[in-house]
Design a protein that fits this description.
The protein has 443 residues and is α/β, with parallel strands linked by helices. It is built from 13 helices and 20 strands. The chain has 3 domains: 129 residues, Methylthiotransferase, N-terminal domain (Rossmann fold); 232 residues, pyruvate-formate lyase- activating enzyme, CATH 3.80.30; 57 residues, OB fold (Dihydrolipoamide Acetyltransferase, E2P) (Beta Barrel), CATH 2.40.50. β14, α12 and β15 form a beta-alpha-beta unit. The protein binds iron/sulfur cluster.
Length: 443
């Protein structure tokens, strides 16, 4: 979501004649779009903020902090980082450009906007704080890269309040985007030669749009509407799904439409019922496994990836063993694994963080190693096979080598020329290096 919102902001800035600095030291305006999901993400931003302080003295520039950290840590930021010029949360970002424009000569603005300025002793200039909650506004377009893949937000916020998660507090309740606006964005992307879109939301399965008492449009119906109106775009993905909202109808729609990638990211978070309950996830281990079975039975060749959270308060060895067991039972194609860290304001924050750091680290390593083994085995079975990929650019290593992705979001590098970028081609998978396939183009 942050990536999509950043692209949209870049687009707006470009429309207002801003150009991208060749390097950070040249910039007149620096915007940090932040994430609060994990402590590490916030720590990184604190580090950046510290680094920008002396740089601002060398060469003045306007510093903007936007996103979830601005929502969550407003007071702390205002106190600790007096060199920030504008603080903008998730609900006021549409006002940011006006503030930037008003203050091209000097930020912050004064006079009519002074009521929004937060002055602190020792702060040379007041910081404009745009952090009031309001209705979330979707931008019209979230694509500025010129590449073949694009994000399309379809909903925002979350009503689930999983006990460890800060998202509902900083992103607010669920809001579904008007389908006409979604279709208009996709139509523009089609014309811009985008070839693959990813529908975005904190919980896309609960998309539900109704207007003036009309019958609500659900996520499976929206998916159908989208894939039935595509022109050049051939692949559609979506993230993130919640297992409790993954309906039979959705499974059927995916199975009936080839344009919907056979890759489902379905965060399980844990394998123990006791921990799932404490997490307030709304499903049991058995229900999750049953859902996976139904998905696999109905959608041929589907790839399933997940998120796993290790070290939740109270997690004991048996809970952990059940998680490893579930990973083996499902045979996830890949997993994002992370360890619990308390987020102030969440329900789990009240629980004693009883798993020690070293236990969390040790368990996380075991989870990562197990997933690597499973992923590698599954990928090795594909060596020698042929598949369709979308070429997205040069590989990191060489301009003679292209990077592409399969329908399952697996990376493939192969010798090729830049003319292939943005095209679907067929490759034979010849070997595996780490997590990336090497391949060659075939007819
Ligand atoms: S579903 Fe749970 S984990 Fe996902 S964003 Fe909502 S509260 Fe957070």
């Amino acid at each position: 979501m942050n990536k999509a919102e950043s692209e949209s902001l870049e687009l707006d800035l470009t429309e207002r004649s801003w150009v991208c600095a060749r390097e950070p030291g040249e910039a007149d305006l620096v915007i940090l779009n932040t994430c609060s999901v994990r402590k590490t993400a916030e720590d990184r931003i604190w580090g950046r903020l510290g680094g920008y302080k002396p740089k601002k003295q060398e060469k003045p520039f306007k510093l903007v902090l936007m996103g979830c950290m601005s929502e969550r840590l407003k007071e702390e930021i205002l106190n600790e980082a007096p060199h920030i010029n504008i603080l903008v949360g998730n609900f006021q970002k549409h006002r940011l450009l006006d503030f930037i424009e008003d203050s091209r000569a000097e930020i912050p603005s004064h006079g009519r906007k002074a009521q929004e300025a937060a002055t602190r002793p020792g702060r040379s200039t007041p910081c404009v704080s745009l952090t009031a909650h309001g209705e979330y506004r979707f931008s019209d377009l979230h694509y500025n890269t010129g590449g073949p893949r694009a994000f399309v937000p379809i909903m925002h916020g979350c009503n689930n309040y999983c006990s460890y998660c800060i998202v509902p507090y900083v992103r607010g309740p669920e809001v579904s985007r008007n389908p006409k606006k979604i279709m208009a964005e996709i139509s523009r992307l089609d014309k811009a030669y985008v070839r693959e879109i990813t529908l975005l939301g904190q919980n896309v399965n609960s998309y539900n749009y109704s207007c003036n008492g009309t019958e609500a449009l659900t996520f499976p119906a929206l998916l159908k509407l989208i894939v039935n109106n595509l022109k050049r775009i051939e692949w559609v993905r979506f993230i993130t799904s919640h297992p409790k909202d993954f309906s039979e109808e959705l499974i059927r729609v995916i199975s009936e439409h080839k344009a919907i990638c056979r890759h489902i990211h379905l965060p399980v978070q844990h394998g123990s019922d006791r921990i799932l309950k404490l997490m307030r996830r709304g499903y049991t281990r058995g229900q999750y496994l049953n859902l996976i079975e139904r998905i696999k039975n109905c959608i041929g060749g589907v790839s399933i990836t997940t998120d796993i959270l290790i070290g939740f308060p109270g997690e004991n060895r048996e809970d952990f063993r059940l998680t490893l067991k579930l990973m083996e039972e499902v045979g996830f194609d890949d997993a994002f694994t992370y360890r619990y860290n308390p987020r102030k304001g969440t329900r789990a924050y009240q629980l004693e963080d009883s798993v020690t750091d070293s236990e969390k680290r040790e368990r996380l390593i075991r989870v990562i190693e197990l997933q690597r083994r499973i992923s590698k085995k599954k990928k090795m079975n594909k060596i020698g096979s042929r598949c369709r990929v979308l070429v997205e650019g040069f590989s990191k290593k060489s301009r003679e080598e292209m990077l592409a992705r399969t329908e399952y979001d697996e990376m493939v590098v192969f010798p090729g020329k830049k003319e292939k970028i943005g095209h679907y081609i067929r490759v034979e998978l010849t070997s595996l290096k780490g997590n990336t396939f090497a391949g060659k183009e075939v007819k």
